[in-house]
Amino acid sequence: MAVARRPDAGSLCDSWLLSLNAMVSRTPLMPAITVDPCTFALFGALGDLALRKLFPALYQLDRAGLLHADTRILALARDPGDEGGHLAFIDEHLRRHVPAREIDEEVLQRFRARLSFLRMDFRDAQSYVALAERVGAGPTLIAYFATPASVYGMICQHLAAVGLAEHARVVLEKPIGHDLASSRVVNEAVAQYFPESRVYRIDHYLGKETVQNLIALRFANSLFETQWNQHHISHVEITVAETVGIEGRWGYFDQAGQLRDMVQNHLLQLLCLIAMDPPSNLTADSIRDEKVKVLKALAPITPELLGQRVVRGQYAAGIAGGRAVPGYLEEENSNAQSSTETFVALRADICNWRWSGVPFYLRTGKRMAQKLSQIVIHFKEPPFYIFAPEQRSLISNRLIIRLQPDEGISLQVMTKEQGLDKGMHLRSGPLQLNFSETYKSARIPDAYERLLLEVMQGNQNLFVRRDEVEYAWQWCDQLIDGWTRLGDSLKLYPAGSWGPVASIALITRDGRSWYGDL
Ligand code: BG6
């Protein structure tokens, strides 16, 4: 799998690429994946998530030969109408959400043959009798809940009543509750019928290829591990910026806000993967134990610190993607009084030996200047400085991990500018690995493809354990309580920008700036 050397090879950058390629080619070939058959029952099969993400992911698994010949997919929803109509609707969406070049008519036919629709009211016990008949004595049942979390417990109870819970796995979509108390209610209700070992809580960021690469990058390269602490790292940035607005999800989003929708799960998971200690092996619980330790070590952001450490924003009208877009309060079905945040920037501190004194700056928002998810690790300056004083500000190594788009990893290093007239002029340049360019032949799978495959294989590594969800809520709850108590005001930002000015002040106050903001 070595990548051809570029004709202009010879630079430092190439040697980096070549060494990585060498590492790739030395890795023994993985055994071919074998996936057991299952009956995949999708609750909420006509909802947005199922149509946009889950059916396309199942189709891609089929296309990659990763669905067992006996795997069946049951689409479950309570919508009236005949089976044929619903299947045609699913088909139509599949074609819309899978790139045309990846539509293979033969695979599509096979996929359709696996798929059936059952109309059922999730609250009605009789519906589950019909479901049990349809499932029969088939292989392992995987019940995927693409429904509100408030009905997870009830579905589990009904599944158990008709004898379907015994060996089944349940997959729970986020958000699990809207605070610690409500998440406990949901988790408790599910736990009455399913042991933790058969519960798969989705955080789709954990299925992203580059997010999984964080584990490889950190623990397969001793180069980084020795540097990965407060002696060598000055601070860490995690940015998850979106250009989309609310996209018809006002009802849900206005109750949640960006902190609950993105920070409580995706951003804290990324923070955990960056900050955790090396697990002793790759089993799900070893990794999750380490993540939990990080969550437990997060310093609370007390009301006294809120003003300095957290910024809540809401987008106003502006220009995004070259067109005028409305503000949050002017979106369809909006409530003009809403004070829900669409942006959060905060400074988190981890109280342990490894990270003491290393701030983690997190920011995420809707309708921002660019779609960008990126982690930047800023290394400390050298302990003693020997170059021209005016170049001092240049000196700092950064490791940039780009999650999306243009997945890749880049290490900013200092080199000397070339040329007789340049003396010891320094410049910062990247040693980079761009996944899509370097591994051209390999398609980067969508996060849901990976996650569904892992559920089918009974592997919980990429799923969130109950205590992780609950510790993450606990930390967010104290922040939200502070906001409520102080009546924290929202800072407006124009759509298409990098967020409120206050979010720049949040980091410049510490003598730093957000990396790469234009
Ligand atoms: C979801 C949030 O979990 O993640 C959405 O509910 C958000 O509000 C989405 O838009 C972002 O996911 P991605 O994969 O597009 O970064």
TrEMBL record:
PANTHER family: GLUCOSE-6-PHOSPHATE 1-DEHYDROGENASE (PTHR23429:SF0), GLUCOSE-6-PHOSPHATE 1-DEHYDROGENASE G6PD (PTHR23429). NCBIfam families: zwf. It catalyses: D-glucose 6-phosphate + NADP(+) = 6-phospho-D-glucono-1,5-lactone + NADPH + H(+). The gene is zwf. NADP(+) binds at residues 78, 121-122, 174. Gene3D superfamilies: Dihydrodipicolinate Reductase, domain 2 (3.30.360.10), NAD(P)-binding Rossmann-like Domain (3.40.50.720). HAMAP family: G6PD (MF_00966). Keywords: Carbohydrate metabolism, Glucose metabolism, NADP, Oxidoreductase. Pathway: Carbohydrate degradation; pentose phosphate pathway; D-ribulose 5-phosphate from D-glucose 6-phosphate (oxidative stage): step 1/3. It comes from Stutzerimonas balearica DSM 6083. Its EC number is 1.1.1.49. Residues 216-514 form the Glucose-6-phosphate dehydrogenase C-terminal domain. Substrate binds at residues 204, 208, 242, 261, 366, 371. The keyword DNA-binding does not apply. The active site is at 266 (proton acceptor). Belongs to the glucose-6-phosphate dehydrogenase family. This is Glucose-6-phosphate 1-dehydrogenase.
